[in-house]
Amino acid sequence: MSTQRKEFVAIAHALIGLNEAALKQATVIFDRIGIQGLSVDLSNAPFISPDFIKVRAWLAELGILFDLDLDKLKVSTTHDYAKLRDMIIEDTDLFTQPAFGMSAREIAVAAREDKEKFAEIRKRGDQRFADGTLDPLKVWEISQRLSTNAIRMFASQLRDIEGVDAHAVIPFGFDSLEQDDPRVTKYDVVKIEVGALPGPLEYVPWQQILEYRNDPDTKGSFLMIRDWLSEVARGSYTLDQVAETVEYLVNRFRRNLEAHAINSTTIGLVAYVVTTPEFSQTVAGAEADWKTRPLFSVEHLQIGLLEGESTSPGSAVAYLMEMDLSFGGSGTEMRV
Length: 336
Known about the structure:
This protein is α/β, with parallel strands linked by helices.
């Protein structure tokens, strides 16, 4: 008897929800996509078209996109996220104290209760960024860590509350997964990259993407690749078996897109997956072979896992998406 598969859900960085090409690519992979602040009014934003704003609303009506209910996420009882929340607050203050001269909590109070004071705070921050008082690299590292840890926490909380298969999805280059953070315990992880995954071109109509999603014969195309990633991390395949399997699965995915007349481009896929000490040694012992195959590469790392993230081999830590940040340009790539 077959068991019902859990929903495959993305908790996505806000930038993914602002880029139509990246959103189309995510939509053929994930069942649902959660974006914090999805309901924020963007009608006056210069970087997003009115038509795309309507598309986002339409996808939300269909249940494909959803905003995060932060109050609901706070009631998770499976794990205690207090330490993780304290880490996020600590990083927030590391950002706001040098930039604005006060804690994030004080800024939030001013924004809510004293508009004049809040305007002065913003002006002070703008001046410190402009005059070089702040180290831009340090600010960037902290902002990466803030957004990455928040999205990873939301994904963990949603897994606890709704029982779905939820994962953080972050624009490539905007994550902090490989930053050294002494506050978290490191575990053996493999970084698996597939360089030839097909993804829909930006101009593909949304209706064709929905038809693809609704076809039971094609809907699980990427899930087979996701399962393959897990098996690789468990050390279930030899090097040759990894190569043969990924070639088959990628070609199958492409054929299923083509069956729905979805013209595709070649995109990149990257996954961070918990592994075993034994497979870590296997990869380390033949590093050149595992990192130089034409269709994929596997690299052993040690990265910090957060509260609620499984330490079981085969468990995905986070997914990365590489996207064209020109907002309207073509040629977007996606990394998961």
